[in-house]
Amino acid sequence: MLPKGYGTRASKGGAGPTALTLNDGPGQLKLEGQRPLETLEKLDSVTRRQVLSAFNSQRLNKPESLKELEPSMEFRGPDVERALAEESAPFKHLSPVNTVLREDQPTFRWVPHPADIGYKVRIFDDQDRKIAESALLPLVDSWQSVKLPRGREGLIYSWKLIAVLKDGQELVARRRIGPPKFFVIGEDNLERLQELEPSYPEYHLLLGIAYANAGLTALAEQQLAILQKANPKSALATRLLRTVRSWSEGK
Predict the structure, then answer these.
(1) Domain check: are 21 and 119 in the same one?
(2) Are 163 and 173 within 8 A, CB to CB?
(3) End-to-end distance of the chain based on CA atoms, in angstroms?
(4) Residue 227 belongs to some domain of the structure
(5) Range of 43's domain?
(6) How far is CA 25 from CA 20, 54, 202, 206, in A?
(7) Per the structure, how many domains does the chain have?
(8) For residue range 166-196, what is the model confidence (pLDDT) as tens digits?
């Protein structure tokens, strides 16, 4: 293990470091600005490029999947006339809400309505076309959806929660910042992660950056927190962790 605070060689003129050695993986991981992690022979070209980009720029860029999930004030779709204002609704969505998912058959969860006899969940694509709907659900607070298409690059969805009351009335839960959305990662990212995880299970930098670029912020934060703990004086490790946490806080 490296002595804490060592392992960085700075470039001239105050730019980012030209080389960095981190306590990571089974021992140490050395990064150099122009060298493509030559010791990691099985590393795919996309992840290799992502890691070197983060090292050279000393930052992570927010992925498009997360940008697309940023809240909006708009409430669209066929149920808008029956939607309660959020502050007056005694029931609400819990998850998934403005998040990126690895699974393509998510479980929807909500806070129940006190006068309900059942619920319906409707799932829409990014053009507000209904693509799936549950049957009338009994007194439950969750429902696992049918399998949703994920595409090569991932797809975005929104969902609406309808409470069926004892008098037959249907009410739609409404959020002040728009309907809850979620993004299902695409086949390309999924296949890359499925190859990366068994090949480099102890390389927290690689996994953290790969998860971050896929929009999987909880997994990215977990891996980068381990990296930062092992390298408490590393500016790069601290900066990457702080960035991913800021994405989660901004939801």
Answers:
(1) no
(2) yes
(3) 37
(4) yes
(5) 8-65+187-249
(6) 14, 18, 4, 9
(7) 2
(8) 888 888 888 777 789 999 999 999 999 999 9
> What's the CATH number where 116 sits?
2.60.40.10
Query: 2 lies in a domain?
Result: no
What is this structure's pTM?
0.85
- In sequence order, which residues have a C-beta less than 8 Å from that of residue 113 and are 6 or more positions away? 90, 91, 163, 165, 171
81 plus 149 within the same structural domain? yes
Per residue in 102-140, pLDDT (tens digit) is 999 999 999 988 888 899 999 999 999 999 999 999 888
Q: How far apart are CA 104 and CA 8, in angstroms?
A: 41
Instruction: Kindly state the tokens that stand for 22.
Output: 């981190």
Give me the DSSP letters along the chain.
Answer: -PPTT--EEEPGGG-SEEEEEEEETTEEEEEETTB--TT-TT--HHHHHHHHHHHHHTS-PPPHHHHTTS--S---STTGGGBPPGGG-S-EEEES-SEEES-SSPEEEEEPPTTEEEEEEEEE-TTS-EEEE---B-S-SEEEPPPPP-TTT-EEEEEEEEEEETTS-EEE---TT-S-EEEEPPHHHHHHHHHHHHH-TT-HHHHHHHHHHHT-HHHHHHHHHHHHHH-TT-HHHHHHHHHHHHHHHT-
Distances (CA, A) of 137 to 6, 72, 131, 144: 58, 29, 18, 11
Of 213, 227, 220, 196, which is closest to residue 43 (Cα–Cα)? Answer: 196
